[in-house]
Amino acid sequence: MLEREVFPRFHIGESQLPWSNELFQALGVQEKIAAAGFVKKWGASFLALDGGAEQYADFAQAVETPAPQTIQVPRARFDHLLLEHSASCGADVKQGSLVLDAEFAEDAATVSYEDKDGKRREVRVAMVVDASGRTGFLARKFGTHQADPVLRNVAVHAQYEGIPRRDGRRAGDIRMLTRSDMGWIWLIPISESVISVGAVIPQAVHRQESRPTPEETLEHYIKTSPGSRPLFQEARRITPARVDADYSYLGTRLSADRWVVVGDAAAFLDPIFSTGVLLAMQGGIEVAEAISAGLREGRLGAPRLPPFPAVRGGLLRPRLSRPLVHSQ
Length: 328
Ligand SMILES: Cc1cc2nc3c(=O)[nH]c(=O)nc-3n(C[C@H](O)[C@H](O)[C@H](O)COP(=O)(O)OP(=O)(O)OC[C@H]3O[C@@H](n4cnc5c(N)ncnc54)[C@H](O)[C@@H]3O)c2cc1C
Prior knowledge:
- The chain contains eight helices and 21 strands.
- The strands form six sheets. Strands 3, 4, 12, 13, 14, 15, 16 and 17 form an eight-stranded mixed β-sheet that branches. Strands 7-8-9 form a three-stranded antiparallel β-sheet, with no helix packed on it. The protein has a three-stranded mixed β-sheet with strand order 10-20-19, with no helix packed on it.
- The chain folds into two domains: about 40-70 and about 155-245, D-Amino Acid Oxidase, Chain A, domain 2; about 95-135 and about 250-325, FAD/NAD(P)-binding domain (3-Layer(bba) Sandwich).
- A hairpin with a 5-residue loop joins strand 8 (about 110-115) and strand 9.
- The chain is an alpha+beta fold.
């Protein structure tokens, strides 16, 4: 496994869904996740423009939800835990390794990468999985990320302290404030004191409204969302603000002989329902099953992949055909 960063590293995407619990179990990582003490999330609140009316979605009441509770995670810690778990299961994890290209022949693929000392290297493999997130190194080599015409959004986000929370069971819930321009603001508690705050804004609005710096832009979007007033009176930003642009999209080619694309590299859906990590993990597991079967049968042509849930509009629920076997 080649990863260009050295973990822990920042990543956006903190709010999880209850279906992830079954995937953690399939991966044998649920005990490590439980021991990490991530913030508990029991549901989501959607607040009206003025912050007055609120619609609450409680996972305990939701249709087809396998468990009433999930987690909110600082991705730096969560992703690091998963990376170390994959190494403990036998994956050869090379951090600080930037994948440059992949060449395909009938009997193998050759991946070239720059290692952590800046040295160019090659590795011969049976199959390449592009899990490079929005980089999509194979998705864009053989196809393109086709932007969704409706969900053309930009996000500006940072972490804050001093935002009041609800009491008790709902203290860890995600809150979403709607805006009149079809944008929205998220508030995701990621520790006892820190809340991740982001504004998702249509690109056309952002072009008119953005300010000289990401920090000023985020503060402008918060101020112009009337429902935020009571929440931000004592709020302090504790990190620089970041901008994520160019979404949502769908990759035009997702697999062929000896390569396959999963997660954000394949498709990215607007984050309003916190689906990204779940779909990436589910896609990863389904692809791993297909490759594993191909290795057993000595047949690693275009794998017969199960429908990619984000692409074919399948139900957002894990469809593991059988428990994964993993070695510790
Ligand atoms: C604004 C915003 C808010 C979001 N909020 C949520 C949320 O609340 N909940 C949720 O579930 N999802 C959310 N998401 C989506 C979530 O971030 C992604 O869906 C998820 O991280 C996808 O996982 P992945 O493994 O496919 O890609 P990533 O998590 O991006 O991982 C890809 C990895 O590949 C590495 N890489 C990239 N290129 C190379 C290369 N050439 N060589 C080697 N390594 C490489 C990167 O360093 C990275 O570690 C949000 C996304 C955005 C933009």
